[in-house]
Amino acid sequence: xxxxxxxxxxxxxxxxxxxxxxxxxxxxxxxxxxxxxxxxxxxxxxxxxxxxxxxxxxxxxxxxxxxxxxxxxxxxxxxxxxxxxxxxxxxxxxxxxxxxxxxxxxxxxxxxxxxxxxxxxxxxxxxxxxxxxxxxxxxxxxxxxxxxxxxxxxxxxxxxxxxxxxxxxxxxxxxxxxxxxxxxxxxxxxxxxxxxxxxxxxxxxxxxxxxxxxxxxxxxxxxxxxxxxxxxxxxxx
Length: 237
Ligand code: GLN
Fold this sequence. Notes:
The protein has one domain (3-161, 188-229): 3-Layer(aba) Sandwich (Rossmann fold), CATH 3.40.50. The chain contains five helices and twelve strands. With 237 residues, it is an alpha/beta fold. It has helices spanning 13-22, 49-58, 62-70, 80-85, 211-219, and strands at residues 3-7, 26-30, 42-44, 75-78, 86-90, 103-108, 119-124, 137-142, 147-151, 156-169, 180-194, 197-200. The protein starts with a strand and ends in an 18-residue tail after the last helix. The strands form three sheets. The protein has a seven-stranded mixed sheet with strand order 2-1-3-4-12-11-10. A three-stranded mixed sheet has the order 5-6-9. Strands 7-8 form a two-stranded antiparallel sheet. The structure holds glutamine. The site of glutamine (GLN) has 12 residues, from helix 4.
């Protein structure tokens, strides 16, 4: 059976392993640097990136993770995993945290707010549409989710999400008392790929839809027993 490593320090690694199993692939739990030698691709799950970084530091995993990424082995980070893979993280209250890096992006760690601001939404992801005319929409689950606020030229945007912000405008009325509140819409990036690295700000592992896992397996050149029926969506949970 084909294998994919899943970083199993903290967070939703069981859910990733279950999604891989559905596709006929064995998800191998990775907790120590030497275990990375047994796998050719890796998923870094969602969870809490500071806690995950502390555990990774404790197990001396950062050098091995960096080497894994730099060797061009396929790596996918979901949510906290995306934060791990970014070259830069913003939006931390105190200090910073160690990152694996590799993805030419700046992520805002808690862009969408705290736990109670978690949400689900339909995302448009053209890469997930099947040749048979399967949908390109995907139900994204965002939990204390990050967003990519800057991306380098080699980063392919797989999905973005509209956000509204307010600013005070004095453009038409320059006097202090006539400032107007202007609502602006912009987009933040929530799924990317850069060569061997993929990142999603949301949690595909918490849905029954395995298309992101299939996409990653294709990218990693891993063929599971059922991965050939790849981009056909399963019933949403
Ligand atoms: N924002 C969280 C962090 O900083 C990530 C949340 C998640 O993985 N669901 O780690």
